[in-house]
Amino acid sequence: MNKITGDNLRLQYFRMTRKALKSVGRRPRTDAQRNRERILKKAKEAFTHYGANASLDEIAKQAGVGPGTLYRHFPTRDALLEEVYRTEVDKLAEAEQKFAQTKPPLEALRAWMLLFVDYIAAKQIIAPALNTLVGGRSKVLEASGAQIKNAIHALVSRAIKSGDIRADLDPLDLLRALVGVSNVASSPDWPQSARRLVDILLRGSGPV
After folding, report:
1. DSSP, res 103
2. Per residue in 159-183, pLDDT tens?
3. Is 51 left (phi over 0), alpha (psi -120 to 50) or beta?
4. Helices 105-130 and 77-102: crossing angle, nearest 10°?
5. CATH number of the domain that residue 101 is part of
């Protein structure tokens, strides 16, 4: 069995196990869950700063676990990349609900857009790598678009109803502008420019 086939089999096993655990409502042991969360946090940092080929052994070291622990949670690099990306998308979806319940409409929209900038930074590194998975475009990438669109539409709708945003605004234009900054900026500090752009966009989207 060649390496590519072996990796894909382990990735399929990881996905099946993840789905099975969710379907029966089982929760990992507390220490195992903490290890998993630390690995994902450090993996996001490593992939964002050093690219999709960042050292897995170094990620394990930074997370305070051994390589064996990392591979028990994520049997392949692709499995780890996919889960980091899925976690970022889930954070965006959960944040929309949280901000909507705890902040005024315009503040909720602003806070979510700032979080979206962090998502773009991770996506720039992780998404291209996931696109190389055997079998074509990863399902997690396909599902992420719907989650993000639903979140921004809900937030903008609330801001329109509150009178903070004009009614003819296309919610996706806000995201296109932020993604555009990340695509054209050549310097590593583009996230700072994107965060400043959030306030510019919101001021320009106010009622006439």
Report:
1. S
2. 999 999 999 999 999 999 988 887 7
3. left
4. 170
5. 1.10.357.10
Domain carrying residue 85: 3-204
Report DSSP letters for 17-63, one per residue.
HHHHHHHTT----HHHHHHHHHHHHHHHHHHHHH-TT--HHHHHHHH
DSSP state letter for 163: T
Spell out the residues 6+ positions from residue 116 whose beta carbon is closer than 8 angstroms to its own: 92, 148, 152, 175, 178
- Would you state the pLDDT for residue 3? 46
8 Å CB contact between 85 and 144: yes
Distance (Å, rounded) from C-alpha 10 to C-alpha 168?
Answer: 48
Number of domains in the chain: 1
In this structure, what token pair is assigned to residue 56? 């897995």
Torsion-angle region of 103 (φ positive above 0: left; ψ -120 to 50: alpha; else: beta):
beta
Q: Tell me, what amino acid is at 19?
A: K
Predicted TM-score (pTM) above 0.70: yes
For residues 134 and 8, the answer to whether their CB atoms sit within 8 Å is yes
Radius of gyration of the CA atoms of the chain, in A: 19
Nearest 10 degrees: CA dihedral of 86, 87, 90, 96? -130
